[in-house]
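User: Fold this; tokens only.

Assistant: Input:
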Amino acid sequence: MAIRTIRVVPDPVLRTPCDPVTSITPAVRSLVRDLVDTVDDPGRAGLSANQIGVGLRVFSYNIGGRVGYIINPVIDKTSGEQYGEEGCLSLPNLWYPTRRADYARAHGIDLDGKTVTLEGHGIMGRMIQHECDHLDGHVYVDRLESDVRRKAMQQLRSAR
């Protein structure tokens, strides 16, 4: 069991798009174990590999007691809309209203190379979009409306 340190903004790894996993190696298996161990803590909904300093396209999740992971996730469907408070382990103590699709569906693979689908509404839909953004090199404040984003960035600068 390895609980990894979470990288915080402005760490450049958080702004770097992650590479796809091309083969399931012992290192990838270890990464998945670490992601699952690290996300399996109250108050943590999702964790992407770059948040622990690894530039591979993998994330773990912990929603409603359901803990898992997905490798090489790609969102292939969204619908509806939700607007609510969102936070991030890489931006500690910053919660801002963020607009997202209500429903999201992503496909990827598991450690056996089998296709998996992860989907959901509400918090699950929000988490899928949030973690895929991380894997693309974005953080949730990038999605904030301009006046709210300005406030968030000021708060972030003063917290450092």
